[in-house]
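Comment thread on ticket #2218

A.B. wrote:
> Attaching the input chain for the structure job we discussed in standup.
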Amino acid sequence: MPPSAPKPRGAQSEDLARAHLEKSGLTWITANYRARQGEIDLIMRDGATLVFVEVRARSARGLVGALDSLTAAKLARLRGTAESYLAAHPRLAGAPCRFDVVALSWPEQGRPHIEWLKDAF
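C.D. wrote:
> Ran it. Output below, let me know if you need it in another format.
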């Protein structure tokens, strides 16, 4: 992709989510952590708490909202991926953890509405 080409919507959403969380005081650790079970979009710290963040983006005109698109199977994969991350980083294994969701609702034009749900599941 040429340097001047716009980022895909998913990458834009993750960038906006990260900026929103950093502005709120969280510290970025990594993005797009992959394990056998799946992927975690963002891993951040909120003080001593390790935060696993799922970023969901949908069109504002879509039939299913960003939050409604989280299924039980997706939540199970996120938990399994978080367990893999903690196993790969034993120094963090004792840290308190939570799962947050950042949902972005994209209008046809302009910036999306961002909703941050702390300790979502």
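A.B. wrote:
> Thanks. Noting for the ticket: The two ends are 36 Å apart (CA to CA).
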